[in-house]
Specification:
By secondary structure, the protein is of the alpha+beta class. About 45% of the residues lie in helices and about 10% in strands. A four-stranded mixed β-sheet has the order 1-2-12-9.
Length: about 500
């Protein structure tokens, strides 16, 4: 690597000292090949393209010029194919320094509680754009049965062809992507759930409307059921989960003995808004509780009893799930930097650390990416020390006016949003300012064009690096927020992250 770096320095020196113009194509050819060895794919492509242009000024014969250009083209094509192949080997993002107490959080976050904000997270160190803030696994989840033939029942990743059918299920449309997923499911929740034809209850048949069952994409009943079926009945009845539940509780330490119960304890500590519920809502939750007890009885998980100790637990779980669910999204098309990322909601999940530690903002400081039923949050801008680290529950200021956002947030999540975008009444995208100096505009435009080129040509890591440079430049130039330039950077970051991680298998 050092030899190639030295070679690059020599090539730069040759250009500085006036290397003959008709020979410069050789310098750029060598420069590009050295950059490939240094894993500088984006820069290498630029150098090789320049070599292909400069060969026209050489004294080579036309046939030799054509041959040289073809060699350059073949080199770039081979590298592009290699880069595309490498995208399939990308691992799920990891946090370099874990929070000392809370699984899945980075160590730059401190979780606190007060009566106004509830549990919330503040940055204790500055967090740069693109940094991994949270990675989380679900305490419960469900794949919509409408995607049962195309996605793994356990990890929710695309099957990409043939999968493994369940030997336990009475239904043929329960599939797994691997024997590992099949075995994990079959030794825990699936051995119970397979005893009941759940797909016929929860899958909506195309063209039958309500007659074909119902597809509860929010998954409240299915997820509440799976909370229980992952463990034995005694796991829940032998401990006072409700008595120990505290909405203001913050974990101070999670040791190996707590690993098995941490996620469930976090679930019971989540906000339920029980005191604010209407009689109709309480009746509906009660009916769902009875339905789940009937399902558990049919599964031979436990015997149905009107005073079964699981009843209050199920009721509480249903309430907690309603206000703490995130979608499981999947990117459905190749990411185009000029369009919104095309996402499909294939299921739902409750992510314990994410749901219990981050509040909503209509202008969030993070962006979410799903890999099957795993989730990662990345900072979408620089988060300064003392700033709150926030998520978006689906209502962004650029797409909805304040009144409509607050109406929906109150309806679906039962709180009044007082985020910066609401308190300062940020305008929707169409009304955002794009004013800036010509010099600033040109420098930012150049970075966006490089990002678009890199993404379209599958230089995914480079596209992400350019996004981060762009967002850092906005900060250094003190471009005010809200501004279209900031939203362009956030969009670019989202495109890069989904292109990199969205199709991990």
């Amino acid at each position: 690597m050092e030899d190639y770096s030295k070679c690059l320095e020599d090539l730069e020196a040759a250009m500085m000292f006036g290397y003959p113009e008709e020979m410069q194509y050789k310098l750029f050819d060598r420069k590009g090949r050295c950059q490939l060895q240094c894993d500088q794919s984006f820069e290498a492509q630029e150098s090789l393209e320049m070599a292909s242009l400069l060969v026209q000024k050489s004294k080579l014969k036309e046939d030799d010029k054509h041959k040289f250009k073809q060699e350059i083209k073949n080199t770039m094509q081979t590298k592009m194919e290699q880069d595309v192949k490498n995208t399939h080997n990308i691992a799920f993002p990891t946090i370099l320094e874990q929070h000392p107490a809370l699984p899945g959080l980075c160590d730059k976050i401190d979780v606190r509680y007060n009566s106004e904000q509830g549990r919330h997270s503040l940055a204790t160190q500055s967090i740069e754009p693109g940094e991994v803030v949270i990675t989380d696994s679900p305490v419960t989840w469900c794949l919509s049965f409408n995607y049962a033939l195309t996605h793994c029942h356990h990890c929710c990743k695309s099957l990409n062809g043939a999968g493994f059918p369940s030997p336990l299920s009475r239904q043929e449309n329960i599939m797994f992507c691997s024997l590992e997923c099949l075995q994990t499911a079959s030794t825990t929740y699936h051995k119970h759930e397979a005893a009941v034809p759940l797909p016929s209850l929860f899958r909506k048949e195309v063209g039958h409307g309500s007659k074909g069952g119902y597809d509860e994409i929010s998954g409240t009943v299915l997820m509440a059921l799976r909370v229980l079926t992952q463990k034995s009945c005694s796991f829940f009845t032998d401990r006072n989960w409700l008595g120990d539940a505290k909405v203001d509780y913050i974990e101070s330490e999670v040791n190996d003995d707590d690993d098995d119960s941490y996620m469930f304890k976090t679930l019971f500590n989540m906000v339920t808004h029980h005191a604010d519920r209407s009689e109709a809502d309480l009746l509906s939750t009660s009916m769902k509780t009875i339905f789940i007890l009937q399902l558990l009885d049919a599964m031979n998980y436990t015997k149905l009893d009107a005073k079964h100790p699981l009843g209050p637990l199920i009721f509480h779980i249903l309430e907690a799930i309603q206000y703490n669910t995130h979608p499981i999204d999947e990117v459905t098309k190749e990411v185009d930097p000029n369009k919104n990322v095309d996402l499909l909601e294939i299921g739902s999940a409750v992510f314990p650390s994410l749901a219990s530690c981050l509040n909503h903002s209509c202008d969030p400081s993070t962006v979410r990416v799903c890999v099957g039923n795993q989730i990662a949050l990345f900072s979408r801008k620089r988060i300064e020390v003392g700033e709150e680290v926030t998520d978006c529950y689906g209502f962004h200021y650029t797409s909805l006016i304040k009144a409509e956002r607050q109406k929906r947030i109150k309806k679906w999540f039962n709180f009044e949003c007082n985020c910066l975008a609401c308190s300062k009444n940020f305008p929707v995208m169409a009304n955002l300012t794009n004013k800036m100096s010509q010099k600033t505009l040109e420098s930012l435009k150049d970075l966006l064009e490089k990002f678009q080129w890199a993404l379209k040509n599958k230089h995914l890591k480079k596209s992400l690096d350019i996004c981060i440079q762009y967002l850092q430049k906005l900060k250094s130039l003190q471009v005010p927020q809200p501004h279209k330039a900031w939203e362009a950077g956030s969009h670019a970051l989202s495109c890069s992250l989904w292109a990199i991680y969205g199709n991990i298998q």
